[in-house]
Fold this protein.
Amino acid sequence: MNFEPFKLVPVGYVRKDGETFIEILPEFREAMDGLAEGDWIKLILWFHASDTPERRNVLKVHPYNNPENPLRGVFATRSPYRPNPVALYTVRIHRIEGRRLYIDDIDAFDETPVVDIKIFVERYDCPKEVPIEEREAHIRKGRMIGEVNLIPRKAEHLDELEEVSPEEYDALILEIGPKTTTLTAKELAELIEALKDVYENLPVEIKDKLRTHVMHSP
């Protein structure tokens, strides 16, 4: 097969030195902002050891390299032999030191190039049937507050909702870290009231500082 050139730039490398960590290149250091210890992330690696014409032409393999397993197309396996030797891992960040992300041990070789890093999101990475379909989620209206992501449902087709009760209407996608759930309109109203109570019970000194902060916000 003939392959058209396709350029990928490493953002870092896998390092094995007693522990496994990702060393981010200096020019991509700012891209680490927002990552925290305990986060689950998706690593996209380039298996450079499999980047040969022979291995990239392999389209069927015995899973787990066991000849007793029937041949399968590489798209139905996790084999490193494939047209583009891309590897995908889900790992946890145990600690961050400078440009190093210390992670779970993985079977990638030392000095394996890291093509990209993405935060793990259950809604995308562990898809399941959810009451609010992706096309109904108002992504542009989403708000991120700390580790909490609030994505409202689009307020469309209201004429179809005359017979739907607040207990039945799913109004909000609620993401906390990697976990995702949905709230009905009734649950959302109850949450708002509960948060009001929490706020009212804050120490007066803290509420005064919050009011001052709000007044000086642009």
Q: What stands out?
A: The longest strand covers residues 86-97. DSSP finds four helices and twelve strands in the chain. The radius of gyration is 23 Å. Residues 47 and 85 are 5 Å apart (CA to CA).
